[in-house]
Amino acid sequence: MTDRTDADEPADEAPSIGPEELAERLRSGDELTVLDVRNRDEFERWHLTGDGVDAVQVPHAKFIQAQATGRVTELVADLEEPILAVCGRGEASAHAVGLLREAGIDASNLTGGMDAWAELYTARELEVDAPATVVQYDRPSSGCLAYAVYSGGEAAVIDPLRAFADRYAEDADDRRAELTYAIDTHVHADHVSGVRSLGDRTGATAVVPAGATDRGLAFDAATLEDGDELRVGDATLTVLATPGHTTESVSLRLEGDSETLFTGDTLFLEGVGRPDLERGDEGAVDAARRLYGTIQNRLLAQPAETTIAPGHYSDAAEPRADGTYAATLTDLRDRLAALSMDEAAFVAHATSDLPPRPENHERIVAANLGLEAVDQETAFELELGPNNCAVAD
């Protein structure tokens, strides 16, 4: 890490913004110049992105050198002000901000740095027409979404993150609800699952798709088959097998006057799930064909006004007025060209020009199957960065 803790900081308190304010600015599509003072490898692994974000890497060592030579302004001569400086924990960037402001440049610091950004987790209620309250959890640093369904004093969490297991439990306590289920829609490749942690913390039943056993599931869990139902208080979650992104992927339908479908990594607001994470490039075409069948015969067969609640969103996604990321099936039909392609065109689309796979996806999958034990610090490091689980439209 490049954070500086020396006593010769030019300012004890650099002007700063917190992770929450940064999230709102990114959500609003504000233009943002980001100066990242971490080392090149850290920057290339993961940095701030978004519509309107211009992120530039200048290592902190250069600011230390420029402090001695008085040439700080040369380091940012091509950057548009105001500038937001970031680093790992907010210390090296605070030093850089102090130097920039002494030179008359409008700059501020991200409080707590990228570590604090990764730890930000927001919660908003998702409007549903069902005998339940649904909370959408959002990790802005990765666009990763999870959900809690509350009804009749009980709760289920869908696609929980291990890093925030305590948060789900505390929120359920605040609502005086018993956490009965912790459910994964598939074996995740971008983040470490919280189903076992929640089970240990609360006694909730860990639930995974039945097909996870074929992938080597190595811990005790209840399994879900197509058509199974889970009761959560007065609400019902019905299992819909939706293979393609992975062989075992399922979606969960919250029954109501207007249905809500939690689609995991099968269908997003900006595209569909990528088909190459489970079996690599050699298995991607067959997986894409399965995904095509899932979309055409299963998802698009749902009522037109079904609310799609995805497992991720990208920088291109626009939140609804209430700040949540969801859309009706009708909206997605109109928005996503992939939903109206024939099979050949869809397979070509889903297997071409894919982004890099999540950096540590093989170890994350092993951890989520119970095949590898990782401690909390290692888990946090493994899942940093973009999820890259989608094929953008």
TrEMBL record:
GO molecular function: metal ion binding; sulfur dioxygenase activity
An individual GO BP term: glutathione metabolic process
Domain of life of the source: Archaea
Keywords recorded for this protein, A-Z: Metal-binding
Domain Rhodanese: residue ranges: 28-126
Pfam families linked to this entry: Lactamase_B, Rhodanese
SUPFAM superfamilies (alphabetical): Metallo-hydrolase/oxidoreductase, Rhodanese/Cell cycle control phosphatase
Coiled-coil stretches noted in the UniProt entry, renumbered to this chain: none
Region spans: Disordered: 1-23
Protein name as it appears in the record: MBL fold metallo-hydrolase
Phylogenetic placement of the source organism: Archaea, Methanobacteriati, Methanobacteriota, Stenosarchaea group, Halobacteria
